[in-house]
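Protocol step 4 of 6: structure prediction from sequence.
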Amino acid sequence: MTDIEHPGEDAVPTATLPLDAWHRERGGRMVEFAGYWMPIQYEGIMAEHLWTRENAGLFDVSHMGQLTLSGEGVAEALEALVPGDISALKPGRMRYSLLLAEDGGILDDLMITNEGDQLGIVVNGAVKWDDIGHLRENLPDDINLNHNEDYGLLALQGPKAVAALARLVPEAAGLVFMQAARAEWQGYAIGLSRSGYTGEDGFEISLPNEALEAFADALCAMDEVKPIGLGARDSLRLEAGLPLYGHDLNEEIDPVEGDLGFAISKRRREEGGFPGAGRILGHLADGAPRKRVGLLVDGKLPVREGARLFDGNTEIGVVTSGGFAPSVGAPIAMGYVPRDHAAPGTAIAAEVRGKRVSCTVAAMPFVPHNYVRKLGG
């Protein structure tokens, strides 16, 4: 008997997504993730991974938190909590940013969109309630925060995603990477963004919960689209060098250590004014003591999260994500090492089941990104 099957008085039952029955009908093997039952695979992680790299894969990411902020001075108010230049974000544009603790540690990574009359924010499912509490506590009282629980989120990823989605929503073809738009499908108001978590071209589509099943059916009726589970989502993002919050990022790690310095906008580097600015700007100027790096693994034995990293007999760091990379044809990983071990080409070792496995620090991404940054290009 497990707590999931028979929750105790203090246990929180595992929640279900709006498409739970849809996944199960299609053979989805459901696992608990971020407090929800989610499909880890349908026909197999390797096949689903490669399908997404070559065609179009449909992911249900409705566990993510979809928030909106509005009110006078909302961009400036949010800038007190994140290191991005939100005031300069134009309508229809998106920005990756970081919710920071007082000391500069990362509370979450998130996507911020200027929707014209409000800011849209997508946060990670595992910490969305913590994020909402943090925002409510730290934003001015006259800033309105809404959690849009009546909307789900789908991600369509892969080189054939644009052709498939444009058959249903023609506006999709007019977007480029990190652009967003509002549209309509069968009378439902939906939100589109050309973004995602695989390194491929793709889109995220926000729809009312009651429209999710019909929309997913319409996409999966197309030859180039198949539903894809969490397993392939993880291997795809690992190949793309993208961190997963709670694994590769946490409150102990600041943006420079996390190799996310690009998320600190130029104006904010000059002006500061965000949590932990002294620590973070110091690391930008002088180098952080440790850094998130990619690792190419010798042989076929996967190196998983938690594996200790060594230089000779000296323990120097830890693996935070790892596994077999189908598009690379070999195991890969990412983890944290001291800055004097962070240069690509540096030889180190990981400990797996009491044995040392040779690894080489590698530049990320492991597989080139295929984002569409200009139409026709």
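Step 5 (inspection) to follow. Residues 1-9 have pLDDT under 50 and may be disordered.
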